[in-house]
Specification:
Chain lengths: ~500, ~500
């Protein structure tokens, strides 16, 4: 059983299959009976809950409040903003009826044709339209601004090719929707929330990200600018992990949302929206995990420390439990989530394998000999290093180790990214290097034509025009036209 | 403005209209553009979040974990359980297509007839079917049991008559779905979760509830027993506030979910499900609020204490702010949520009215004279009593007062309920008394026929067969047949 648990595809053999197997073996999620929709299992959901709680705290610290808007959107709302409808109408779930009835031929239930809706409803793929239709009633004067609202919700996009967490038809996310009196304030908000995402990714997920702006071609449908955080997975592919959009006055115009400014003149409202989703789970899994299973940063691990007693009989267990109990209490009082696994229906070897696959950052094992010698065996999941240490002061050691693991995972991921980030000065060089994956910094002439040519020929897209780094101008590797700075190309999820 | 805020229908004039106006004036929710669906506004959502957090903690303390299952359910799943499909097929939202396309006649977008689903999908009205279809893969042996899972989700029921929070097409809820090896364990679980609901209603919402079992006619579609907590609103109507169902083996049989018992023989799994929803917001509002607006129990109030400075100029404000700052800090350090409202674009009178309408439990007002005399004006929202007290020791006084308000609201609601609870021995007496509302304890012969006759003639239903109280047998007030105990009748929401 223990072997079977850890018996899955290696990253080097098939990275994509390794990921799919890991998601199932670590008990994170599974395919459901509904095409493209997954079931998020309790262990996977517990990680998502930790992410949610932290993000929610960060949103509230930056002045946002939560609210809830309808799941269903009248079809006509989508058409109000021209780019938006192009982006979302082609992959949405359409509700056309509101009743089933018994099949006259006796085969279960059928759609009742008499219960057809006058106007079809769309399951929200994103909520700009329904929210701006609502904001119209909330906003009259500059005094009503800004509106800083976030929503935690499920959304639905009828994707053709789905992969658990990375791209599913239904997914869970948060979507912030803010309204402002000035362009500057909205732009500042969009950038501020990108910074929140960046901080969350790096400090909590231990996933280093590049912040930048999307090329026009990769913008959110309806945005004037889309800011993004881009992470690199272990196979060198990019994963867009969060986006924040400056929407200008597009949705205010589409839904006729104006306010009286301080000079008592009507103006259209300025908008942003920003979101991260259960896709972050994919980023988390793919950044840190290894051939033995999941590796979790301590700050997001549902179980940070597991303690496994190794005993021969009831009496032996009792002695260990008495020794361990004050330690469990102390760790918990220090805010650490501890599981003391004294279940007698699984052997220690099985437990070790199970917690390894599930990515529990620190494992303590304690047996009869440890009791006698005042020791405990300590294993850290990130490096799989094991050592026998003194039981005295173990709580301090665990706290220190959790910090160390959190930092180590970040440094490791950052080193990986740096080792796979390179530059290309000619298109030939680019085509050669892109085969090895990674981020390639190259000059581009700023046109969609060139971007699409590159995508077609190499499957690489512009991940972003990075905010930081080298700003030296140059010439486009494809057309030789001027380029104001290098941009990041990569193949992506 | 301040007057306008508080200018709404009195309870005694039109209770139902008072409720509708209150929901809007207190900024809790509003109707959306989608029929029967509401927008939950930030202030209303903040109350719901406090409820969620507390309930979630209670579920976890009783060993449950959260998970997430798909929003959409294949139509055929509904038909698997005969009672279930009868109960839910008639009011569900049906997804039939997965794409829109540009209208060939140029009017926005239309449903693409080429994108018709082979099998229609239903937006979940409740998740028993999709979840038991999933549990089939999770359960093989008695070692896999129990499964104690909860889901926070949105659900959809196409209700004809809707009212904000009380009955909406889309609503937010939690649904627990547990699987057990024995009948006894499942029944114990269903009762345990009813107790959790009862404790939450009474200790946090300050809403007294009667616990009992539903008559067969009022059971959840697919349950063998439905347990309920019933609350009484100020107009004497009952509000079913939470239900917990013992599902027997119905869903296990419908989805073929068996396990190998300890004797290695296959058995069907036993099930429960239990849920509370945003309907609790309706119960909370209607139980405590008055003609001046919302009244909130301190344990669920997003703002527990508001402090309003009364000043003539910048300097005056500065002096007050300096005095108040340490108090704000102290209250926050004691876990109390405080708002210091020094906004200069609203007058104190307007602020007073606004926080009164919003039900903030405690208001402190402090002006120049208070500074000189070392006093502060304190107002409690439940009784609207105002007094001027010493500023020294005000933090202790506030903490004591919040406790007192929490208790007082519960006692007041309980007294109200008791004053409107009566008995009836004859059907004549019953018909007379039911016109005044309230709970009527009466004998009933246990048949659906009699229950439906009573409902038709008086609009009263059996709210529950209460667990506690008088168990003396008698005879049915309608048919004269034997009755084992009195049951609770009421008109209801």
């Amino acid at each position: 059983m223990a072997k079977e648990l850890k018996n899955f595809t290696k990253r080097s053999d098939n990275y994509s299959q390794w990921y799919n197997e890991l998601v199932v073996k670590a008990d994170l999620a599974e395919q459901s009976a509904v095409r493209g929709c997954m079931v998020i299992k309790p262990y996977g959901y517990a990680i998502w809950e930790k992410m949610q709680r932290q993000l929610d705290d960060m949103f509230k610290e930056t002045g946002h409040q939560n609210a809830y808007f309808p799941l269903l959107i009248p079809k006509s709302f989508l058409s109000r903003e021209a780019d938006h409808v192009e982006g979302f109408a082609k992959e949405c779930a359409v509700v056309t009826h509101y009743r089933l009835k018994n099949d006259p031929e006796g085969n279960g239930v059928v759609v009742d044709p008499a219960a057809r809706l006058e106007e079809e409803l769309i399951i929200r793929p994103t909520s700009e339209t329904i929210i701006w239709n609502t904001y119209k009633n909330w906003i009259h004067s500059y005094r009503d601004l800004p509106i800083l609202v976030n929503q935690w919700a499920n959304v639905f996009r009828w994707e053709m090719r789905t992969r658990m967490f990375l791209r599913t038809a239904e997914f869970l996310w948060q979507e912030g929707h803010t309204a402002h009196a000035t362009k500057e304030e909205a732009e500042t908000e969009a950038r501020k929330m990108l910074d929140v995402y960046g901080e969350f990714a790096e400090k909590y997920m231990a996933v280093p990200v590049v912040k930048g702006v999307k090329s026009p071609n990769e913008r959110f449908a309806g945005a004037l600018d889309t800011y993004t955080i881009e992470a690199m997975m272990q196979d060198g592919k990019a994963l867009q992990s969060g986006t924040s959009h400056f929407l200008g006055q597009n949705f205010a115009k589409a839904f006729d949302v104006t306010f009286m400014n301080k000079e008592n003149k009507p103006e259209y409202v300025w908008a942003t929206s920003w979101g991260v989703s259960t896709r972050l789970m994919g980023a988390l899994i793919m950044t840190h995990s290894d051939d033995n299973g999941l590796v979790l940063p301590p700050k997001l691990a549902p179980i940070q420390v597991v303690i496994v007693p190794i005993y021969k009989n009831e009496e032996g267990l009792k002695a260990i439990s008495e020794k361990v109990e004050p330690l469990v209490k102390e760790l918990r009082s220090r805010g650490i989530s501890v599981k003391y696994d004294d279940a007698d229906n699984r052997r220690p070897g099985f437990k070790f394998a199970d917690y390894e696959v599930k990515g529990v950052p620190v494992r303590l094992a304690i047996g009869q000999r440890d009791l006698e010698e005042g020791t405990v065996e300590l294993m850290r999941r990130d490096t799989l290093e094991k050592e026998t240490v003194s039981f005295d002061g173990i709580a301090d050691e665990v706290v220190r180790l959790l910090d160390d693991i959190q930092n180590n995972l970040f440094v490791k991921a950052k080193n990986m990214r740096e080792s796979k980030t390179t530059t290309a000065d000619t298109y030939e060089e680019f085509k050669e290097k892109i085969e090895n994956g990674g981020f390639i910094l190259a000059h581009w002439d700023g046109t969609t034509e060139t971007e699409e040519k590159i995508k077609e020929e190499t499957k690489a897209t512009i991940r972003c025009i990075p905010f930081d780094g080298d700003k030296t101008p140059g010439v486009c590797m494809v057309t030789g036209k001027p380029s104001s700075q290098r941009v990041i190309f990569a193949r992506s999820y």
